[in-house]
């Protein structure tokens, strides 16, 4: 009986991935709410060393959605592992693609246009993924941050 029961039980990985979602209206205060949510989450899951970088990059990605789309909602998905985090900002505007510009192309006083350049400079990996083939219905701008040893 014990053998039959253990054979049916799922194996749980030693370090499971835990994913959290934050969904909010596409509004002017959403970048602040999203970055505060992610920073608090990372501090509470043992990733405090990544919190400030994540705050900055989430703020940039969510601000891009606010400034360049007309979607009613956006979602920030944060997946936590022991050594890294994966964060995706998802919106239902797959045809509006943020443009990456080199940091050097900006004046020191520029207040916008640096979002993806910051993501590229500070993230371990990043990209844009379209969801729903053959006709995508949403996209995500994602990035990964790893803990340093």
From TrEMBL:
Lineage: Bacteria, Bacillati, Actinomycetota, Actinomycetes, Kitasatosporales
Signal peptide: none
GO molecular function, one term: protein serine/threonine kinase activity
Pfam families in alphabetical order: HATPase_c_2
Protein name: Anti-sigma regulatory factor (Ser/Thr protein kinase)
InterPro entries found in the cross-reference section: Anti-sigma-factor_SerPK (IPR050267), HATPase_C_sf (IPR036890), HATPase_dom (IPR003594)
Gene3D superfamilies: Histidine kinase-like ATPase, C-terminal domain
Organism: Streptomyces aidingensis
Keywords: Kinase, Serine/threonine-protein kinase, Transferase
Ranges of residues in domain Histidine kinase/HSP90-like ATPase: 32-125
